[in-house]
């Protein structure tokens, strides 16, 4: 395969301007974004992305999960496309770059190819995967999971948010439910650019993370049921306090994760306590325990110990407890050929780089099951993400997009 010329780079100012324009849609309250999946803001962001893609001469495909596919044709109509992309949806208190950099970095590849008149043998397709975050509709990476055959479409459509609204209904409501069968597309390869969401690259002074593996993840939703009662008139020995039960279980979560230090982690980020009134002892607590490790046996051990320890705590307190695994995936080893393409691109362009294991889940983790896949990462300030204060520099964004450009275009094969 012919690599792009060493001096060929994307337009960093245009990429940054696109990031800032997208950030105006679904603004947060502290400088970030709240563009949760299948909201009106999500629909508006999708419309802007489609507009930009059509202006770049692309056709837009849309499948039944709302996944968007902007295609730039190659010289060979029978050649398998090279896919690139990420997601446009955000956390409720999300930053401006998580996911969005990967989608708009992919768009910048197409714009740069148009600017330079370069043709590739293989088509290039930029993808926006629906509901990567999994905040409104669990689990995360829902639509890429359906694409890869991990979940059924009917199951995904039936997922409900906190208000009882169903995924399928909301997808149709915002007008982004396509007719294309999910997972019908074949890929030559898939590349995803993302901010690191961790502190390693910045601390090591490296421009690029070459992602070789992804941590495995397990989400277990725990429901503890006690009895609502008045906080002032119920004697302490007669209480069935679901909130206290949750607190004791969460102490065990910390203990379990620390027992597998330094690579395992665990916490509960999603917590609901009912009835959530100042003078009522909680009768129910619902929370999701997030365990992660690059070792599958460690994840399985943490899951098992959570159930045993939580059951024992609740039995001792007269509480009922139920467990539901609501998300997860095994540790991922990305395709060696695609990883090499990323590493070679970083070296060719003179960027400092290092191998990384991704601590977060990404759509690439599911797509790796159906196509050769790799990821490119750039630093983020203090490793902060899933926070409106998330920040990267224009230089970091450009470096990541340049490596992405070279890896994708080399894989798509320059014509002439």
UniProtKB/TrEMBL annotation:
One GO MF term attached to the UniProt entry: hydrolase activity
Pfam families on file: M20_dimer, Peptidase_M20
Database matches in SUPFAM superfamilies: Bacterial exopeptidase dimerisation domain, Zn-dependent exopeptidases
Highest rank taxon of the organism: Bacteria
Keywords for this protein: Hydrolase
InterPro entries named among the record's database cross-references: Amidase_Cbmase (IPR010158), Bact_exopeptidase_dim_dom (IPR036264), Peptidase_M20 (IPR002933), Peptidase_M20_dimer (IPR011650)
Transmembrane annotation, as ranges: none
Domain Peptidase M20 dimerisation, chain residue ranges per copy: 215-307
Family, similarity comment: Belongs to the peptidase M20 family.
Protein name: Zn-dependent hydrolase
Organism: Sedimentitalea xiamensis
């Amino acid at each position: 395969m012919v690599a792009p010329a060493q001096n060929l780079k994307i337009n960093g100012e245009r990429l940054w301007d696109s990031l800032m324009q997208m950030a105006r849609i679904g603004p947060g309250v502290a400088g970030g974004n709240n563009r949760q999946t299948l909201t009106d803001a999500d629909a508006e962001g999708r419309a802007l992305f489609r507009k930009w893609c059509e202006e770049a001469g692309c056709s837009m495909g849309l499948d039944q999960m709302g996944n968007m596919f902007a295609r730039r044709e190659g010289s060979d109509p029978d050649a398998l496309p090279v896919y690139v992309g990420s997601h446009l949806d955000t956390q409720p208190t999300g930053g401006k770059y998580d996911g969005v950099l990967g989608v708009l970095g992919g768009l910048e590849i197409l714009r740069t190819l148009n600017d330079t008149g370069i043709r590739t043998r293989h088509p290039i397709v930029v993808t926006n995967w629906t509901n990567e975050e999994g905040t409104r509709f669990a689990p995360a990476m829902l639509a890429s999971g359906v694409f890869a055959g991990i979940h059924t479409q009917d199951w995904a459509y039936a997922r409900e948010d906190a208000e009882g609204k169903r995924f399928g209904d909301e997808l149709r409501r915002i007008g982004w439910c396509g007719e294309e069968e999910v997972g019908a597309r074949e890929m030559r390869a898939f590349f995803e650019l993302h901010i690191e969401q961790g502190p390693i690259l910045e601390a090591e002074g490296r421009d690029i993370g070459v992602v070789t593996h992804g941590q495995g993840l397990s989400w277990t939703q725990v429901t503890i049921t006690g009895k609502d009662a008045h906080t002032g008139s119920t004697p302490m020995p007669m209480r069935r306090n679901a909130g206290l039960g949750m607190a004791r279980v969460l102490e065990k979560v910390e203990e379990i994760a620390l027992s597998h230090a330094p690579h395992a982690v665990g916490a509960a980020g999603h917590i609901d306590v009912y009835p959530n009134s100042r003078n009522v002892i909680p009768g129910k607590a619902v929370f999701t325990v997030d365990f992660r490790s690059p070792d599958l046996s460690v994840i399985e051990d943490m899951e098992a110990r959570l159930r045993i320890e939580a059951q024992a705590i609740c039995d001792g307190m007269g509480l009922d407890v139920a467990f539901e695994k609501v998300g997860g995936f095994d540790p991922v080893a990305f395709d060696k050929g695609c990883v090499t393409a990323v590493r070679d691109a970083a070296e060719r362009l003179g960027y400092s780089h290092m191998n990384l294991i991704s601590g977060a889940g990404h759509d690439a983790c599911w797509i790796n099951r159906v196509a050769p896949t790799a990821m490119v990462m750039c630093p983020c300030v203090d490793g902060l993400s899933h926070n409106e204060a998330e920040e990267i520099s224009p230089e970091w964004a450009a470096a990541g997009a340049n490596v992405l450009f070279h890896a994708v275009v080399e894989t798509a094969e320059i014509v002439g």
